[in-house]
Specification:
Layout (H helix, E strand, L loop, with lengths): L15 H4 L5 H5 L12 H12 L6 H7 L9 H10 L2 E9 L11 E4 L5 E7 L2 E6 L4 E5 L7 E9 L2 H11 L1 H6 L3 H17 L2 H16 L2 H49 L3 H4 L4 H19 L1 H8 L3 H12 L4 H44 L1 H6 L3 H53 L5 H23 L1 H19 L19 E8 L9 E8 L4 E5 L6 H8 L7 E6 L2 E2 L5 H6 L1 E4 L8 E2 H6 L7 H10 L3 H5 L8 E2 L9 H13 L5 E5 L7 H16 L3 E5 L11 E6 L2 E7 H4 L9
Parallel strand pairs: 9-16, 9-17, 12-15, 15-16
Antiparallel strand pairs: 1-6, 2-6, 3-4, 4-5, 7-8, 7-10, 10-11, 13-14, 17-18
Helix pairs in contact: 8-10, 9-10, 9-18, 10-12, 12-15, 12-19, 13-18, 14-18, 15-17, 15-18, 15-19, 17-18, 23-25
Length: 731
């Protein structure tokens, strides 16, 4: 099938006779990568062809993971997002189809009318394209090539270069580099706006000096027309600048929000499992203050302040030494800001700390509401909230006090600057070196110089909060992630030889050891039953095999390769896992199953359900595999149905290593028998299985038993050797 060759074939290297073969629309419809889409649009049909033409070297799974999860069809935005997830940047350009430079092919062409297509190459015979609407290759000639539309040119992102820039200037400022051209546009518009802002004070000066003195109404009319034109231009330019700010803010919201969430998702479990939910929510909320900064008035102030020198120069021209007043005030504002810097940082830190604790308690309360009611602990929780709320309120009060002091100081400085300007300017008017109109204009300009500075001064606490958030975001992005930004190209196949060599693990320095010196091995086609009481280390064995943790001592080898040398994400793709507690997400049954194997075909989904004795139950549902579950509906499903769905999600991966944590939970006798038969059949296929269990029946299919007690290996060996030593009431 076309999809099977994706990412491994350069279209230029394909023989001409094979290149002429066209993927049928039916083949595209059946592509497992598009199985989650109800409708295969022309964009979806073009996706695989474009990647193949770009000599992309990834795997089918990478495409499936990059696809939108809930979309019924793939549109232009979704298409570009998928390509971005696969490390391709895109650049749009309005152009006619026949004018596209062959050196920029392949690309995506979206005509104004008709389905999208992929221009591949131009020759003497015409323009070779892939038609997304027909799902076929075509050669266009003559007037067929005269189509107006938008071409999207894709370029592979240099990940190593990005990492170098990130280390040099920080992740956030690396992202801001994308908006360099827009920043220059904003600076240019701000310069023009500041020049236009001179119209009002100069108009006032002219009225005082020319109109009032002469009584010429015609002169007033001319001045009025001029200042009206300036006001109209000011309105238009401000509207344009506002739209640019809104666009930049929306893009920052999207880019930073997605990247922060992505990084949190791929943090090593050691960073997330012991952190509270509230603390992790706080990480996500850090970027919101940055977004609000760029969409609020503070961003405008930031761009206004550098152009204050224009007004200072004009004041100097009009009033000479009067310009000393705004310069002195600028220095004074700066000194006060330095003095208040430590106080502001302490206030912001305390407010954020206590606010985060209060938020953690709220989230904990909501998630544990039923348990709180069972234990009649409402009053206790209310007391806890009152205490944290009081601390948070006091911190907010102190922060508000700092802001109030800054507001008062800035107000006094502004009034003082006005008084000083008048006092200084009056003497120059008396000396005849400055007109009354010039004095009034200078007064307006002084306030124009200090206005943005005052606004920024009042919101210093907000600036400090944004600076702190940017630092937190940069620190988060500098943490080593399990996810590699480059596409996983490994086609590693494993046999399933597992060896634990004196493995020890302690979750934290002050915790008791979870495992101490555990030794065992398992070969392909063997089943290992792991037994022990609560806290004995059974689930820890599975977590280590999933790469969730790295042992502090000893080694774990998969096919003679230490798992420290394997990419954790790649390792989990090779291992099937059935957790002890079922967990499903909002989406269809098929989408929940494909979370484990996004590239699974409909036939593979059905096969996995058959192995879990679930297929008939799913088909009996009104919407079958398109039935939506999750977000509260999971509790309405029978426990047996949920557990079998849990098993099916493991089977769909077809891994060589399977980990079952209490797989019998919720299964009745019939379903448990089917499960054991499935595991027995997988043994014949060379699959090695780990079963954490308390059911005696599961020992019948186990080849070996590992008996753990308080993290130590009590006994290990063949089932027939270990089973007689188990206490009668152990299982």
């Amino acid at each position: 099938m076309m999809a099977e060759a994706l990412g491994k074939i350069d279209i230029q290297q394909v023989p001409a006779e094979r290149r002429s073969l066209s993927p049928s629309a039916e083949a595209i419809q059946k592509s497992p990568l598009l199985a989650n889409l109800r409708e295969i649009s022309d964009f979806a049909a073009c996706l695989e062809i474009l990647l193949m033409s770009l000599s992309w070297r990834g795997q089918q799974r990478n495409i499936a993971e990059a696809m939108p999860h809930f979309a019924d069809e793939l549109d232009l935005t979704g298409f570009r997002n998928v390509m971005a997830n696969l490390q391709f940047s895109s650049r749009p350009e309005r152009i006619e189809l026949h004018k596209i430079d062959p050196r920029l092919m392949p690309c995506l062409f979206v005509p104004d009318k008709g389905p999208v297509n992929i221009p591949l190459a131009r020759s003497d015979f015409g323009l070779r394209i892939f038609d997304g609407g027909a799902g076929d290759y075509k050669t266009l000639t003559g007037n067929e090539m005269v189509q107006k539309g938008t071409a999207y040119f894709f370029k592979s992102v240099d990940v190593e270069e990005q990492k170098f820039v990130q280390q040099k200037i920080g992740w956030f400022w690396m992202i801001m580099e994308r908006f360099r051209s827009l920043v220059y546009q904003i600076l240019g518009l701000t310069l023009l706006l500041n020049l236009l802002a001179l119209a009002t004070p100069l108009f006032v000066m002219a009225v005082y000096d020319k109109v009032v003195a002469t009584g010429s109404m015609s002169t007033l009319a001319y001045f009025g027309v001029g200042v009206s034109i300036a006001i109209i231009c000011d309105y238009v330019l401000r509207k344009i600048r506002t739209r640019i700010f809104a666009f930049v803010g929306a893009r920052i919201d999207n880019i930073v929000g997605n990247e922060v969430f992505k990084r949190i998702m791929f943090l090593p479990p050691a960073f997330t499992e012991r952190a509270t939910i509230g603390a992790q929510v706080a990480r996500i909320k850090d970027f919101e203050s940055v977004r609000d900064f760029f969409t609020g008035p503070m961003a405008v102030v930031l761009f206004e302040i550098p152009f204050s020198f224009i007004f200072v120069i004009v004041i100097f021209i009009l009033g000479g030494p009067v310009a000393i007043v705004p310069i002195f005030m600028l220095v004074l504002f700066w000194l006060v800001a330095l003095a208040f810097g430590p106080v502001i940082r302490d206030a912001i830190s305390a407010t954020a700390r206590f606010g985060s604790k209060r938020q953690e308690l709220v989230i904990e309360t909501i998630s544990s509401m039923r348990a709180i009611k069972y234990t009649n602990a409402e009053e206790t929780w209310l007391a806890r909230y009152r205490e944290l709320s009081a601390q948070a309120s006091m911190a907010s009060f102190k922060s508000a006090q700092v802001t109030s002091h800054l507001t008062t100081i800035s107000h006094v400085l502004m009034i003082s600057s006005g008084v000083a300007t008048i006092a200084f300017g009056v003497f120059r008017v008396f000396d005849g070196v400055m007109t009354i109109g010039g004095l009034v204009a200078s007064m307006i300009l002084v306030w124009r110089v200090l206005g943005p500075l005052q606004q920024g001064f009042v919101t210093l606490t907000r600036v400090e909060q944004v600076r702190s958030s940017i630092t937190q975001i940069n620190n988060l992005m500098n943490i080593n992630s399990e996810h590699k930004d480059s596409v996983v190209n490994s086609n590693r196949k494993i046999e399933g030889f597992i060896e634990f060599g004196r493995v020890s693990l302690r979750y934290s320095p002050d915790a008791d050891p979870a495992l101490v010196g555990v030794n065992f091995d398992i070969k392909p086609g063997e089943v290992l039953a792991i037994l022990g009481g609560n806290g004995s280390g059974k689930s820890t064995i599975l977590k280590l095999l999933l790469g969730m943790y790295v042992p502090q001592a000893g080694s774990i080898r998969v096919d003679q390769t230490d798992i420290r040398q394997l990419d954790p994400v790649e390792l989990r793709q090779m291992v099937g896992y059935v957790p002890q507690t079922t967990q499903f997400f909002y989406g269809t049954i098929a989408q929940n199953l494909r979370l484990a194997n996004p590239a699974a075909s409909d036939e593979e989904v059905a096969e996995a359900c058959e192995k879990a004795n679930l297929l008939k139950d799913v088909e009996d549902l009104p919407k079958g595999f398109w039935t939506r579950i999750g977000e509260g509906t999971g509790g309405q499903l029978p426990t047996s149905f949920q557990q079998r769905l849990n098993l099916a999600r493991c089977f769909i991966k077809k891994p060589r290593i399977m980990l079952f944590d209490e797989p019998g939970n919720g299964l009745d006798f019939e379903d448990d028998q089917v499960f054991m038969k499935t595991v027995a059949s997988l043994k014949q296929e060379g699959v090695c299985s780990f079963i954490v269990t308390h059911r005696p029946s599961h020992l019948r299919i186990a080849d070996k038993i590992l008996w753990l007690e308080n993290g130590h290996m009590k006994m290990y060996g063949p089932t027939d050797d270990v089973k007689p030593h188990l206490p009668k009431d152990f299982l």
